[in-house]
């Protein structure tokens, strides 16, 4: 047996022991659900203590009330967990719980506490990592300037008629986008993001896997995703919302796939809500894990089973638009969309090729869902992205790129109609899809025409103004 197999076997034994409650003196990660928010030090009448002015303004604009669900978890409960020797990673207001690092023995002892509803194993504890400084080489050799403003990104934006939005002056100004991903290597150095730095448009970033602010590392995936929205190098590469503000949140643990990542995702989504973010992009998806005891079954694609899917719906109900990648399993054994694309209120984005046909890898919806999934489609094949290590362009494919192309334009469209609710923006986009009359489980409502959606919303705005003047 190879050394690698010995290691894997050892890991399997450890994880099995944790799952079956054996008393082993190792730190692992658990999710603790609390039974209530009794005697909370926070009150819905004083929301400034846990939500920003921008977040409160969004809720006031759309008449969204604050409820007990919005209150932070009870601090006394957290103190009790800490006293028992556990370490709190973060908490969730919406799920009323906390991610903690503890031994199985400690977790078992906590089950008897009156305020603990349940404790669930969500993955191994990998330990903290040190920040890495990646080299970036400035080399413009082979960087071709094109005559049109968008450079290599023009065709993708024009397929959605998004360039017309830009020409009307809607490029994301005044809007706030959160990007949840696995890392944003060298975003702080790459010239394509100079505009972000010049305008100080990247003003928040946090790593929920390591509890620090070191997000410009670990993975180039988030770098590519962000570029589809935020890059600005005229004649070479221009994103779909180059003048928006951004927050980069790392939720993906690159050292393994476990349910912990879903809870990281929820915590990041709540953080985005507290900042007052308008639109969220997540090019992440879950269905299979390193520990196969955690794997999902297609029948669990119901928008309710996964904590991430539930949180996506809660975020929408609080006034945000959540855009997620549909998944890249269309030609695999799994075939279906990933979580949280199953959330009924998340916009799940499929990928199409340059000719508008479905990309083979793009995931299908699950036919037992009560809503059409995926929702919409955008270009996702050979999308131009920055090379993360030198000043060159590369290309990437996947619904991971289709989602941010859509996210940026959704943001620009909403910029044009800030008085309209998220539900109206989404409805207009679906109505503008090229197969809006016959949506299916491959591309949903199809490729949206953003100028058609603009006209739909303009008519809606005119109707509202007419009623108000009566």
TrEMBL record:
Q: Name one GO biological process term.
A: proteolysis
Pfam short name (any one):
Peptidase_S8
Instruction: Give the record's family classification.
Output: Belongs to the peptidase S8 family.
Instruction: Please state the span of the N-terminal signal peptide per the UniProt entry.
Output: none
PANTHER family named in the record: EGF-LIKE DOMAIN-CONTAINING PROTEIN (PTHR43806:SF67), PEPTIDASE S8 (PTHR43806)
* UniProt xrefs under InterPro entries: Pept_S8_subtilisin_bacteroid-2 (IPR017317), Peptidase_S8/S53_dom (IPR000209), Peptidase_S8/S53_dom_sf (IPR036852), Peptidase_S8_Ser-AS (IPR023828), Peptidase_S8_subtilisin-like (IPR050131), Peptidase_S8_subtilisin-rel (IPR015500)
Query: What is an example of a GO molecular function annotated in this UniProt entry?
Result: serine-type endopeptidase activity
Descriptive protein name: Peptidase S8/S53 domain-containing protein
Which residues are catalytic? 181 (charge relay system), 221 (charge relay system), 400 (charge relay system)
- Domain named Peptidase S8/S53: which ranges? 172-446
Which keywords does this Swiss-Prot/TrEMBL entry list?
Hydrolase, Protease, Serine protease
Organism domain of life? Bacteria
